[in-house]
């Protein structure tokens, strides 16, 4: 069974605006202003909450206090949970590509370093949760990406096999995760890193979601008759 696993932030959806807004809310509560820019710092947002907190403290205080970053992480998550889809949107064509793959009988899953409950809520609000057979978040297992186990678990829970699976991502973390798991990596070029992800030597680049079904077919083969039959059966 062909299985396609997706990263979430920066891959399926542009969530940078809401992530940065939550980080800035914490800095503002501390009397430190709003040091992060929603456009210029989008790449940092996709590296996670702690990365944004470190950047903000560095800009305002001239140094990073890891104890303070740790102390602010939970309040940041709480602020983010209160408004996680104000600005966040699926990338153009993502929903149609997911539906096309599902229509071919592909199993779909998500493997993200966002906490599982937040990922679950966001996917529901974006209207695509029902398309995914598995969801592995940062706290689902005792390890997270780039450890290979979250990806392998996402594949297994979706009912797939590593030999016919692919990971769609946007960062060095996704590339390293796929390599460690022995799975092809496809990196998107429409995130903040743009064409720079080519330097990570993924098995393929994705410049728009309209290309995804063809890229998947090239890397792990076209839909088999059994997959199409299974999909038809599930629709009856």
TrEMBL record:
An MF annotation (GO) of this entry: phosphoglycolate phosphatase activity
EC number: 3.1.3.18
Gene3D superfamilies: HAD superfamily/HAD-like, Putative phosphatase, domain 2
Catalytic activity: 2-phosphoglycolate + H2O = glycolate + phosphate
GO annotation, cellular component aspect: cytosol
Biological process (GO), any one: DNA repair
Involved pathway(s): Organic acid metabolism; glycolate biosynthesis; glycolate from 2-phosphoglycolate: step 1/1
InterPro entries for the chain: HAD-like_hydrolase_sf, HAD-like_sf, HAD-SF_hydro_IA, HAD_sf, PGP-like_dom2
Family in the record: Belongs to the HAD-like hydrolase superfamily. CbbY/CbbZ/Gph/YieH family.
Protein name as catalogued: phosphoglycolate phosphatase
